[in-house]
Amino acid sequence: MTAKSKIPPHVIDSLFELLKPFHNIAVHMYLLLSNFDEIIVNKSQIIQIFFQYFRLHGIINSMKREIAFIGLGGNIGDSVKTIFSAVQKIEQIPQIFDLKCSNFYKTSPVSQIPQNDYVNAVCYLKTTLGAEDLLFELQRIEKELGRVSKPKEAPRIIDLDILFLAKL
Question: What domain range includes position 35?
């Protein structure tokens, strides 16, 4: 599996216990999806395999979902490339569905600190994640892309904000 999303360990353990009887099925599904002859998978991979399988077969559609709008922005380095990478990483989260992204826009910073213009976009998505778990995933992606803590109006390599989250 190419997705390397970090699922909190307690969630992995809980899901793994539920899916443990289906371990062999998960391995076989992975083999079918990837065309490998043999594979050893860990707990996180088994869960991701099931999410992919459920997604492909519409089973996950019956799960509780929320819709979200995520704001993306940055003004340090190649912001277009960074935001594009963030969108790809968000899309790889197994609990994210139907991701759609706006065009990218150049905007002027609202700050007393001299800095470059921002590149901004907004993504719409459906998710089975709650607010805290979605925030955890977005912060993980920010860190992977090089974000460090800075004052509120300071330039940023990437900023991912939950603008709106509601139950479907």
Answer: 9-61
The answer to whether 5 touches 92, Cβ cutoff 8 Å, is yes
The stretches of 59-130 forming alpha helices (DSSP H) are: 79-91
pLDDT tens, residue by residue, 62-74: 456 788 999 999 9
Distances (CA, A) of 44 to 4, 35, 47, 95, 124: 9, 20, 5, 13, 26
Angle between helices 23-34 and 43-56 (to 10 degrees): 70
Q: Does 13 reside within a domain?
A: yes
Q: Encode pLDDT of 5-15 as tens digits.
A: 455 555 555 65
Residue 50 tokens, joined: 């099931």
Q: Is residue 80 part of a domain?
A: yes
Does residue 96 belong to any structural domain of this protein? yes
Whether this model's pTM surpasses 0.85: no
pLDDT at 100: 92
Q: 76 is written with which tokens?
A: 């340090």
Count of residues for the chain? 168
Cβ-based neighbour number of residue 70 at 10 Å: 24
Is 3 among the domain residues?
A: no
Distance of CA 148 to the CA centre of its chain: 19
